[in-house]
Amino acid sequence: MSKLAKFPEGLLWGGAVAANQLEGAYQEDGKGLSTADVSPNGILSPPDFAMKEFNLYHEGIDFYHTYKEHIALFAEMGFKAFRFSIGWTRIFPNGDEQTLNEKVYNFMIR
Description:
Layout: E1 14-16, H1 19-22, H2 35-38, H3 56-59, H4 63-76, E2 81-83, H5 88-91, H6 102-108
Parallel strand pairs: 1-2
């Protein structure tokens, strides 16, 4: 009879998300445009710099405005760890700045 493997004591159960999955607020607080913002169909069509096509990445789950509620849901599920990313175009809107976007910096240190 085989013995069932057990997870080590103290293991942190958690989840992870990426900015392009849920961030939202794509034109707020000085965020620059990302590839996802102008490519609603990925490589299947040319970039839409006028952003006239519907693009799910523009709204996402709007984690930018609702992060407290979403983190509370993770905790409610029993997760003890949560990894998320912030889009680089939110941190360095043009990609050549010498300092962080101050609005994002203030958001990150809340």
